[in-house]
Structures are given as C-alpha cells and as structure tokens.
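For reproducibility, we list the full input for the zinc ion complex.
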Amino acid sequence: MNLVGPCGAFGAWGPLDRADPPHFNSMKSNMGSLHTLRKWLLAKTLGFGVTLLCLGGATATSALAKEPFDFLPLPEQAKPVAEPAEGYRLQRVGTNGYVVMSGVVQANFFVTKTGVVVVDAPPVLADKLVKAIKSVTDKPVTHVILTHDHADHAGGASAFPGAKIVAHALTAELMRVYPDPKRPIPTLTFSGARYDLKVGGTHFQLIYPGPNHETGNIIVYIPEQRIAMMTDLFAPGWAPYLGWGNADHIPGLLKSYDALLALDFDVFLAGHAYRIGNRHDVEVSRAFFLDLWNWTKETIAATPFDPSKAEPGNLWLAQSIWFKEIADKVTPRLIAKWGNELAAVDAFTHSTVMAVVVSTFTDAPNIPDSALKP
Ligand SMILES: [Zn+2]
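The corresponding predicted structure, in tokenized form, follows.
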C-alpha cells in the first residue's frame, strides 16, 4: 500500500523505504501517547517497506488498522548481533581495551601494566564482566570508574571488592542520598571539570562537561588510544531514549556533545547498543538534537496556547494539551528526516519532544544561536 495525502503545516516529506519488515507489535501496548503519530506511519506493499506520510486522519487511521505493524524496522546498523554460548561478546578496542557486550548493555575494561581499570559495572553484566576479565588477564581490578550513579551502570560495582571506585564528587553525593550496598560510595572523587587518572601507563582523562543526562555524568577519554566514553548521552545509532532518558539537564546535553567533539577520538563507547560507536555517531546524534531543539522552539512560537481547550481554571490540563499539540507537530518531522537512519525514532521521539518543551520553559537556557548550528 502506498498512500499519498496532504501534509498540513509540515510540507511534503519523502517516503521512508526499508527492506525488512517491521516487527514491533509488542511495543504498541505501551505507546498510547503515540496514537496520533501512528496516523503517519503506514506500512506499504509486499516489499514490506514503510512509507511515512502525513495523511488526513480518518483515511490514515483506517488504512493503518489493516496493517499488521505500525512501527519502523531497525536500520541495518542497529540490528542485534548473535550472542555466543557464554552470553556475552568481547571486543578489543585501542591497545589494551575491551568492551563486554550483552544485548544492548556494555561495559569496558583496560588491562594496564599494574592492574585492570573497569569503566562502568552494569549489574546485568557483573558476572560476565568478571568472567571476561579473567579470560584475558590474571591481574586484579584496581579501579572501577563509574561514569554516573544510575543503577543500570553502577549497580554491579560491588563485584569488585578492593578496587578504588572513581567518580565525580557529584556522583558520590547522589549515591549518599539513599546508599545502595550494590553501589559502593566512590572512594576516589574529583570536583570541577577534569581529573587525570594514570594507572599502569594508561592515561584516563575524566572530564565533566556540566550537568547532562545525570548530574555528575563524566566523559572518560584515553587520548593515546583515541577512545572516548560517555554513558547514556545517547546510544549509537538510536534515537534518544524515552523522554531523553530522564535527563537532568537537556540543554547540558548539547554542551556534552560539544565537549566530546572537541576531543580527538575514533572509538565512542556509550554503555548501550549492540555495537560500539564512533565519532560519526556522536555527530549524527548532535544533529538530531539540533533539529529536535530548533523545531520544538519554532513550533512553540507557532502554536498559540488556548486555555479554552480545558475546563476554566484547569491551566495544567490546558498546558498539557498545548504541549501535546506541539509534540504532535514536531514528531512526524523528526521521523520523516531521521526514521531511516536512527532506530526507534518513532518509539521514543514524542516523549522526547515533550521533555524538550518542558525544558524550554523551565531550564529556559540562553543558548546562543551560534551553538545551535550544525
Ligand atoms: Zn543513566
């Protein structure tokens, strides 16, 4: 099926064609807020490509109801990779680095002359990380660098008793709020923007670009090996996670992209994805951020707030309706441009736009125009 219709205020967008069938029916039950968005997602023809179109509501909805799926398939670069019998994959990076991957979860370790330095310890990987390290060296784990406090990346740190736990002081502060025995409080912390950690001949630059995905979330950079790590800013090849992953400070994400791109690196390790990332992934995700931010701002300006759409006095409801209207307009534009390149744009982006709308009013950053250019 290939339908064409009017595109309202958004202009005409080209079709998105994919070779493989979409297969994400299971997501539908959780995606009620994307009901409007589905109007634009139409499966087409026996070739199982997907054409993304902006259509008049009734026609699109009825056409869609006949299709067995209504989400975009994964782009080739984001597809799962078969897992060996041991349940994890181990990939060499740089001269002494290893990435341990299981599903979309990743952790990294570096074998130095005096011991092993682990970067992040996801609980679902903790046993596999221990096993993977033992498979390549007898040296002890002397340091565990935690990029940030989130449980899904720090909750396996207790698997390395005796290691120094290294993190930004703000991460330690967050971990002290409700201490978790699985996330030992960091024993080596730093304040400010940078700390140089040298272990057994390997130089780790720990760089704090300011609040971002999580307050205290740092870049770990090994200049000699051209490796940069930053967990949860984004997953290489994927759209930002639902609502931008509960980001502490959305404008700070742009600072993080720019801090990363000021570094000289080839390999980018992000904590999630079936594959490792690279500099291009960072550039692409930054470009997505710019479209998301700029188009959201434009759309806010072009969409009048109308309190009459809610019961008199219920300004929060009227505001929610307004925010949703804005997200309904921006989301299909982002899907049309990025749906072929980034995975899950259609699954996550409506909530991400909503998060950006709220951020523009609450964080209300004074981002200069020069910083919002490609
Ligand atoms: Zn996180």
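The chain has a mean pLDDT of 85. The chain has two domains: 1-73, 81-280. Both points were considered when choosing residues for closer inspection.
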